[in-house]
Structure formats: structure tokens, C-alpha cells
Design brief:
Layout lengths: L1 H9 L21 E8 L7 E5 L9 H4 L5 E6 L2 E4 L1 E2 L6 E3 L12 E8 L2 E8 L5 E8 L6 E4 L3 H4 L10 E3 L4 E7 L4 E8 L24 E3 L9 E4 L8 E10 L1 H9 L1 H5 L22 E17 L8
Parallel strand pairs: 1-17, 11-17
Antiparallel strand pairs: 1-2, 2-6, 3-4, 3-7, 5-6, 7-8, 9-10, 9-12, 12-15, 13-14, 13-16, 16-17
């Protein structure tokens, strides 16, 4: 779950950027960084409190993790006190009987450490539902078949004939019930022994094939409620899972203002805007406290007959 969002966040923090490009000048000292993702209908998540390290210092979670923070999440009149995880510096765990995250609800984060207070808030999106997943004819764009959903058959989506998709045949299209300000999708390869669909991995990718076992889309608006997953982003055979996230305002603001995401074709800003650093909706520090709702589509990718090993 976290992989998609971690990629989205860390593309802006890539190693080739200079110290201070995102977080201010070096003279300002280290900044406190918070990280939390709330998913509708799942329990309150783990949270991370870390600090930026001086330029030139090798990054490690142990060195960056903040050990003595007081971390609390507020939902209306309810207060949820987090406890530090002794096994992972900077990781804070919710109460054992945390409630599920509600849609259309404000959650507030408060972190106190070293006499400083960090605050952030998020309002969760509505529940997201993939109303239908279909395979379209590439020429006519007529529906060739409708895929079975998890709601209909559970994990049998991976054995259903309708969900056996031959690589490069047709167009995978998802119809969404509008639920948020913006969306992001990700495809996960579930087979440990999945076969690569390309003998010569295309030069267009700037990541290894192994990295693309979890492959995310740029953020998109999907104002018409339709998402198409391109076949060029499918690089492995076997059981595959597309997750679609309806994201909150914080995620939207980060994505549209991230210089790297603009270069890759994300939301982008308005004409004339030139973002040098992303918008972190955090008071007293940097980082992300965001929320999303999610729904999934499962299917199996089959190699084209000519590519078969038979």
C-alpha cells in the first residue's frame, strides 16, 4: 500500500537534488519530517517522525528517526495517543484498538518534540468504487468483455475466464464512481516467479524491471470517471492488481507542485507557476499527512502466443 505514495513523495527528494532545494537553506538546520497515510475503511496507520540530516551525511532510518516525540491524532473529540516502536526509530504505532478511518472526516495530527509542535490535518475523501472494469477493442473501443470484480467473486477473479488478459490485446479501462479531488493508480505484480514480457527491456524506463513489480501512474484528474491502464506499463506475466486511489487535498497539492511530477506529466500547476519545491501542508515542519480511499481490480496477464514458451 505504502509503495505508491513513497514513490510519489521521494521522487522529489532524489539524490541529484542539491541540499536545500526542497527544505530551505543548509543554514536553517535540520527540519522535522512527518509521514502518515490514512486509508478509508482501514485502521489508523503507523506514523513516522524523522529529521533531515546534514548534507554529506549518509542517510539511515536509525540516524534520522526521532525517538522522543509525543504523537497524537484527533478525530472530533477523540484523541489517539501513539506509542514509539522500540524496534524502528522514528516509527510510532496507533492504539491497539484503533477505529477504522471514516470517509469525509477531518483528522488532525499533533507532534510535540524538543519544545516544538508540528501540526497537520487531512479531510478524507468519499469511499471510492470501481464500478466496472472492461476490456475494449483497440480499433472500435467497443466492450469486448467485462471483468469480474472482487465484490462478485473474491479472489476467484484470478481464475475467472473474463479476467485472463493477453498482453497487448485490447484496452484496459476502469470506470470509477467519483470520490475525490484527484486520483492515482498503481499496478502490482503478485507472482514471485513472474516472467518478464520483454526480452530487451525498453529504454523508456528509468527503473529496473524488478522495480516495476509495483508500477505507479502519474496523478490524474479523471474528471470523466474513466481510467485506462497502458499496456506499456505492464511488464510481467501472472496475477496482477490495479489499485486506484482517490486522494485528499494534501496529496493533490503535493503532486501538482512537485517539480519532478510536473516533469513526468502529473497534475502540474497553473500557467505561469514555477514550483521550486512541493507544497507540504505541515505547520512547524515538512512532510505529508494525507488520506485516500482505494479500490482494486485483479486479473491475470498472459503472454502473446508468439511469446509463449510452448
Amino acid at each position: 500500500m505504502r509503495y505508491v505514495f513513497i514513490i510519489l513523495c521521494l521522487t522529489a527528494c532524489a539524490a541529484e537534488r542539491q541540499p536545500g532545494d526542497l527544505f530551505g537553506s543548509v543554514e536553517e538546520g535540520s527540519a522535522l519530517v512527518v509521514d502518515g497515510i490514512l486509508l478509508v475503511d482501514q485502521t489508523l496507520p503507523e506514523l513516522f517522525v524523522r529529521r533531515t540530516l546534514p548534507p554529506g551525511q549518509f542517510y539511515s532510518q536509525d540516524a534520522a528517526g526521532v525517538l522522543d516525540a509525543q504523537v497524537r491524532v484527533f478525530q472530533g473529540d477523540q484523541i489517539f495517543d501513539y506509542a514509539p516502536d522500540p524496534a524502528t526509530p522514528g516509527r510510532y504505532l496507533p492504539p491497539s484498538e484503533s477505529p477504522q478511518v471514516e470517509p469525509l472526516t477531518e483528522y488532525r495530527l499533533e507532534v510535540e518534540v524538543e519544545g516544538k509542535t508540528i501540526r497537520a490535518s487531512t479531510t478524507t475523501p468519499e469511499r471510492l468504487q470501481v464500478l466496472q472494469a472492461v476490456l475494449l477493442d483497440e480499433d472500435t473501443e467497443e466492450i469486448m468483455r467485462t471483468l469480474k470484480s472482487f465484490a462478485e467473486v473474491g479472489d476467484e477473479v484470478y481464475t475467472a475466464p473474463e479476467n485472463q488478459l493477453t498482453h497487448l490485446e485490447g484496452i484496459i479501462e476502469l470506470h470509477l464512481e467519483k470520490a475525490g479531488e484527484a486520483y492515482q493508480a498503481a499496478l502490482f505484480t503478485l507472482e514471485e516467479d513472474a516472467q518478464l514480457l520483454y526480452e530487451d527491456f525498453p529504454e523508456i524506463y528509468d527503473r529496473t524491471p524488478e522495480d516495476l513489480r509495483a508500477n505507479q501512474s502519474p496523478p490524474f484528474a479523471a474528471s470523466d470517471g474513466i481510467v485506462r491502464w497502458p499496456w506499456f506499463a505492464v511488464v510481467y506475466t501472472g496475477r496482477s492488481l490495479i489499485k486506484v486511489y482517490a486522494v485528499d487535498h494534501n496529496w493533490f497539492e503535493y503532486a501538482r507542485s512537485s517539480p519532478d511530477q510536473q516533469e513526468q506529466g502529473g497534475f502540474g500547476g497553473l500557467a505561469g507557476e514555477n514550483f521550486e519545491r512541493p507544497f507540504f501542508q505541515v505547520e512547524g515542519g515538512i512532510g505529508l499527512f494525507v488520506s485516500a480511499s482505494v479500490d482494486s481490480v485483479g486479473f491475470v496477464v498472459l503472454p502473446r502466443p508468439a511469446e509463449s514458451s510452448d
